[in-house]
Amino acid sequence: xxxxxxxxxxxxxxxxxxxxxxxxxxxxxxxxxxxxxxxxxxxxxxxxxxxxxxxxxxxxxxxxxxxxxxxxxxxxxxxxxxxxxxxxxxxxxxxxxxxxxxxxxxxxxxxxxxxxxxxxxxxxxxxxxxxxxxxxxxxxxxxxxx
Length: 146
What we know:
Elements: H1 3-11, E1 20-24, E2 27-30, E3 33-37, E4 40-41, H2 55-67, E5 72-79, E6 85-91, E7 94-95, H3 96-102, E8 107-108, H4 117-125, H5 138-144
Parallel strand pairs: 3-6
Antiparallel strand pairs: 1-2, 2-3, 4-8, 5-6, 6-7
């Protein structure tokens, strides 16, 4: 069994049955395995918007709430440039990437496709989450810190 297959098998267990850490709004760690949610980019854990709103902490809290006590299942979508497994993950069947974008806690990441662009537009129009604060896009925020 490959490492990825093992990860996917483990993820079919309830989140409460294993050590799961939320690194930020689009990154889940299970043991020493890092999964990045496919199709989105969320604020980094230390990212704060210009008005002082702790976007990174809020995004991580939202992801934690969406996952808590639910059955996680993830499909491998390849690797990102940092070696993390890109994964399309669901919690009790609900797409976590879509839920994060709908909540305004992540942006559609167009390098992965356009799957969540309509959700992002709706969240922006409703001024949800990051769309109600002067927040840098996470890829811009990361670039300014490297």
